[in-house]
Design brief:
globular; 3 strands
C-alpha cells in the first residue's frame, strides 16, 4: 500500500506563537515573520519540492485555536 502523502504535523505551538511556518512532509522546516519569508526559507532547503508540497501555516498568539488539515 502506498504511504500517505499528506502527513499530519505535530507542532509545538508554544514555540511558534505569532509565526508563519512552512511544513514539508509533516515537519516544520522553516519559520518567518510572514508566509513569504517562511516559504522562501523552505524552498531554499527543499528546491526539489513543488509549491504544492510546502504547507504554510500561521500560529496565532492566542492559546485556543483549532486547525483542520
Amino acid at each position: 500500500m502506498k504511504e500517505e502523502q499528506n502527513k499530519i504535523p505535530v507542532i509545538d505551538f508554544f514555540k511558534f506563537r505569532g509565526k508563519d511556518l512552512a511544513i514539508v512532509d509533516g515537519k516544520v522546516v522553516a519559520e518567518g515573520e510572514s508566509s513569504k519569508e517562511a516559504f522562501e526559507k523552505a524552498k531554499k532547503l527543499f528546491p526539489e519540492k513543488s509549491t504544492k508540497d510546502i504547507l504554510l501555516l500561521f500560529v496565532p498568539k492566542e492559546e485556543v485555536f483549532v486547525y483542520f488539515l
